[in-house]
Amino acid sequence: MVNLAIGEGPTLDEQTVAAISSGRAEPALTLLVESFLEMRGWADRTAEAASGVFLERESPTAMAAGAFERVMAAIDAMEASQPVSAFGGGPRYPELIRLPSSLSDLVREAEARRDWSYAGPGIRSLRLGVEGPLQAELLRISPGASTPKHSHSGREFTLCLSGGFSDGRAAYGPGDLSMADSRTVHQPVADADGPCFVLAVTEGGLKFKGALGFIQRLTGA
Q1: CB atoms < 10 A from the CB of 125, how many?
Q2: Rounded distance, CA 51 to CA 34, Å?
Q3: Against a cut of 0.90, is the pTM above it?
Q4: pLDDT single digits (tens) 179-196
Q5: Is 52 helix (H, G, I), strand (E, B) or coil?
Q6: Distance of alpha carbon 9 from its chain centroid, rounded?
Q7: Which of 7, 33, 3, 39 is nearest to 19 (CA)?
Q8: Nearest to 209 by CA among 141, 123, 151, 146
Q9: Which residue segments constitute the domains of the chain, with CATH numbers given?
Q10: DSSP alpha helices (H): ranges in the chain?
Q11: Residues near 167 by Cβ (< 8 Å), separated by ≥ 6?
């Protein structure tokens, strides 16, 4: 098991880590891990280490004459044809100006297509256009605000981008990662000294506790 999270909680299993390293993981999970590694300054050397491991497992194959030159020419042509981003300008909130490169274009694109939506008292959310069964969204939690107490249908990964929050298990700041699963019951609360922005990747819906949980069960939501 690989423990990337802060405090007690679930960890990434070796199968998931291998899928991320080889590019086979869900896009939302890959986005989260790449953003986490970049914020921690681990991206380059982690990628190099993972690439080395997988290269060692491959059987050598003879290359055709001129193969290297053709590959480099194709890369040059691809880079030259990349269109200029149509989603110029900075993000809506100044705290998001220095986002990890993995996230910045996605946030600009999402803000160009839709506004931040209401997700509860003091909470705004921005759904990112990431394909696959896992949902990826940014959350802005106002100072001192909290999400409803909840558990999970599946896994939940929360990367703190700016500000800070705590959930009864640990306190999290920029670059810290929280992991939860169906056994976890928590209630993230933003620090009082400023808004908290997080990247949340969820598998399945939330299961609310208390009055909200009763309403959720009553309505079948």
Answers
A1: 15
A2: 15
A3: no
A4: 888 788 888 899 999 999
A5: helix
A6: 17
A7: 33
A8: 151
A9: 1-221 (2.60.120.10)
A10: 14-21, 27-40, 43-57, 67-80, 101-113, 210-219
A11: 178, 186, 187, 188, 189
